[in-house]
Specification:
By secondary structure, this protein is an all-alpha fold. Helices cover about 80% and strands about 0% of the residues. It is built from nine helices and two strands, in the order αααααααααββ. The chain has a two-stranded antiparallel ribbon. The N and C termini lie far apart (about 65 Å).
Length: about 260
Amino acid sequence: MAHYIELTPVDLLVAIGLIVIAASISIVLKLGLTRSLSIASARCMLQLGAMGLILKKIFQINTPLLVLGWLLIMLVFAGREAVRRSKTRYRWINLDTLLTMTVSSIVAGGIVTQMVIKIHPWYDPQYLIPIFGMVFGNSLNGICLCLDRLTEYVRSRGREIELMLTFGATRAEAIRNGARQAVRTGMIPIINNMTVAGIVSLPGMMTGQIVAGASPMQAVSYQIVIMFMIAAANAIGSMSIATLAGRRLVSSHGLNLPGQ
């Protein structure tokens, strides 16, 4: 019979030794990553510890207003992180990323939680928060990659785009190839993850469920649903941000690149 093994504070201290190993390698090879590793490790422990305490309270209270409020906070922070990671800045970028993540998460996460898993009640935080958290985390990576690729295209093909506009092309026509490349770039990570899932790596949710005692086939089923959800969210997010950013960066009169 499968059973769940609880971790103690001593176990966590032993796990910290793994970060010490990584930091030691950085010191020996003079990689200059020791400070970054230390800060990232401390933030990871603090943020996850705080999240554990918050989720414990949310699970106890279990009201739709509180669950949706926490999801909104997660969404805002995810949008800000997407902007922070992007090399590009333009006016209304925060609004564009927030709208993009809202649409992609509602469509992909909503279908999974309400139509596939059919959670009851519909706001059950045990399922809603972790699933939407995975959508937010993966969508922001796709959005960043898509934004950077699109901006790079507009900068490198600026004269070509302006020439097309001069000859009567619409904004959508002038930037179409760049938008396609950007959406493709945003989707590459999830495609790579799906390609090696199960053979090279066991994805996080599947591993967590197996460790928690779920049957391997149920864990596999959940992981398939999650991977497909992330793929849909990345596709929707990349397409949406490419469309919105394209309209900001290219007008009917020319380019609106930052600094120009």
